Amino acid sequence: MNYVTLLLKKNAKRFLNILPVILVLSFISLLYYGNSNSLKFETNHVKENIAITKDLVEDYQIILKRFKPDTEIYNDYLLFLKDGEERLELLETRLTAITKKDAQTYYSVSEKLEKRDYDDMSKNLTYEDPDSLAYSKLSLEYYRYMQDHDFAIDDRWSGIQGFSFMAFIIDNYMPIMLAILLIFFLSNLYCASNIDRMDIHKLLPMSRGKRQLSRLLSSLIIGIATLLGLSLFCILLGGIFHAFGNFEIPILTYTLEGASSLVSFASLLLPFLVLTILSILLIINIIAFFSTFLKRNIVCLLFSLAVILGGMWVTTNIVPLAKITHILPTTYFDALEVISGEMMFTFGNANINFINGVIVLTISNLVLMAAYYFFSDFSWKKKKKEKVMVVSNDSKETYHNDKATKATWGYIKFTSKRVLCRKSNIVMILLTVVVAVVFLLMNMGNQSKLEETIKGQIINNEKYIQEVQKEQSEHKKGSAEYINYGNLIKDSKNDNEDYKKVLSSIEKEDWETVYTLYPKILEKQITDLKHNESENIDGIQFFQQQIAYFEYLQEHDLAYENIDFPIYGLSFTTSLTKIILPIILTICCIYLLAQFFTLDYVKGLDISVLYPLQSKKTFLTKLMLGIVFTVVMYSVLLLSILLITTLFTGNAGLQQPFMLQNSEGVWQAVSMISMFKKWFFLGVLFTINLSIFVYILSFLIREDMFVLITALLVILGFVYLPKLVRGIAQYAHLFPTTYMDSVNVADGFLAQQYGNTSISISTGISVLLVSIVVQFIICIILNNAYKLRKIRKR
């Protein structure tokens, strides 16, 4: 137990441990700020409904004057008027309840309003969406539940009471926040005792098993304390600014068919704690296992982040894995979604449940614990000629040479070798390439989507023809109905003939014919959609995009690739940069910079003062080298993916179409290479901005692992902030981090997603240039202040 106490005290005394905690708590506070705006949105929504209902009431009053009393049409409009007046009264009462924070009245009135909507939809289900009816039914249940349990006014989806906000965080963000903090804390706990790749704790008089269990127990205490601390902070945040609530807050449960009913969080608390503790143990065991091979803190931290967060992302985003997600341990990290059945419904996999979660996590923990026990004494075999990072005689002569140019070049060679000799940097690049190859193989497996779509359409048309023929047989030949059904059958058969021609051309790889015929089929479908009463805008835009895409391919005589799953050189690289590559590249760059900028700090002391260089030259050289390293890494990774893809497919894809939608909603295609020049330049500016930011952090923190985790949390936190916090998106164009996603900025997707038209290439260049200049000035100020402090000490 003394060893457990030693580990806990050592971890608690690390002052810099508070940095990621502060960042995570700040993120939670911003999320609460965003959620707290829900009452403002609710108030504005009610006011808008009041204004609309008032206009309707006035219109009904005017219309009634046109008809005689007691007539049928007069009575109909009289009913409409009474219904409108009742609705107006309820809405005004609801607004007053929100203003006065009268929860009972608010939920009572909201239930009545929802009941009216539910009844209207039930009567008109023939043209109403069944999902809307189910949603309305659950809303009714929610209002009754909140009223029965005497809760304060709350938002159903973005809780603002203490306990409901805690449930919101647990459901959406707790797994990833808990994983990041635990990886940060525990990679230090397991690796800090390694000196020159040897674990000095092995010298303690205790068995290997006892040492392993002691570390496991201390890690578990840290994990549970972190979970309770974050949960308590959420409760206090909601309680101070709104209301505390209690464990009876409603949680929506699911079946395979969809949302089912509301239950209290208290009823799910025990299974939630069991799964969460098992998940914490799995995180601990993964870190412990990696620590046996990766002795350095920062390397263990990075690989643990990649495996754990990557595993969480893969299980929730890779669709082909949906059938086997129940056997993947990272599936059960989001314990509340598992227990409520939401994950089972999302993946359509009935095997994702509490029992299977306990079994999978327990087996995984036992396997990793056994592996850690047997490999805990592992050490890399030393080579006969061990590489030691020292300066060669030539370098020493260079460093002590009075000539400034030779000293500078000596410093550049010295630091460059230290960075390039790090195997972990090369491994990062290789892992990124492996990820790209996996995505490429998946995309190549989806190239038959067009063929499958056409085959499916032919089958659907044949079924439709059979149904119409059955309907036609019930009418007399020559009647209007019989003729109408005949025309429908004829049109469907003609459509099938066109589809079969396209399908035959695809099988023969006669793409010129496909490019000619298929757009005509799509144009006909657009015409049908426009004639439909419920015009499908999204469907029309999708078909218009496809038409523009095929017309561009035909005009420029290009090879076909699925628009959603590109496989050719630059088109694949661009699509990957739209999805996941910006995050991977940012992590790689931060990892490299965190090591490079802290090379000259030993236990917080700056040893660069010993170099025969002026402090200004050292500062500028180090900063410029950092920028060069990141720009080169960014370029090399993109070029590697481009070349590998080109080798796989034999097509560089430089002229493949890049689809853009203008302000009027019209789709147009431009070449990949023309767009590449724009988003690549924006990406380079972002990496330069990132380099200077990490330099500032390293100057202040001076420890690679803390620089890495702080930079990751700050950069990625600001990237996702506009998506998660209400009201932030309108200022997103001012954040340099927005332009990390350079391709989505270039094609206007981010501007559309955030509803912020200021997000563009030109704005991004301006913001990043200003940020670079401002940060560079901060670097100069920090270095000058540090220099003055050294002079005063002398």
Describe the structure.
This protein is mainly α and 794 residues long. The protein has helices spanning 2-12, 18-36, 38-64, 72-100, 103-123, 130-148, 162-172, 174-191, 208-241, 265-293, 297-317, 335-340, 342-347, 354-375, 393-399, 404-420, 423-444, 449-472, 480-507, 511-531, 537-555, 569-579, 581-596, 615-649, 672-701, 704-724, 742-746, 749-754, 761-793; strands at residues 194-195, 198-199, 250-255, 258-264, 601-602, 605-606, 657-661, 667-671. A two-stranded antiparallel ribbon has the order 1-2. Strands 3-4 form a two-stranded antiparallel ribbon. Strands 5-6 form a two-stranded antiparallel ribbon. A hairpin with a 2-residue loop joins strand 3 and strand 4 (258-264). Helix 1 (2-12) crosses helix 9 and helix 22 (569-579) packs across helix 24. The model is unreliable at 380-403 (pLDDT under 50).
CA radius of gyration: 32 Å
Shape: globular
Beginning-to-end CA distance, first to last residue: 47 Å
Strand count, sense and closure of the main sheet? Answer: 2 strands, antiparallel
Give the oligomeric state: single chain
Question: Given the helix and strand composition, which structural class is it?
Answer: mainly alpha
How many β-strand runs?
8
Low-pLDDT parts are 380-403
Number of helices: 29
Binned strand content: under 5%
Q: Strands of the largest sheet, in order across it?
A: 1-2
Helix content: over 70%
The chain-level mean pLDDT equals: 84
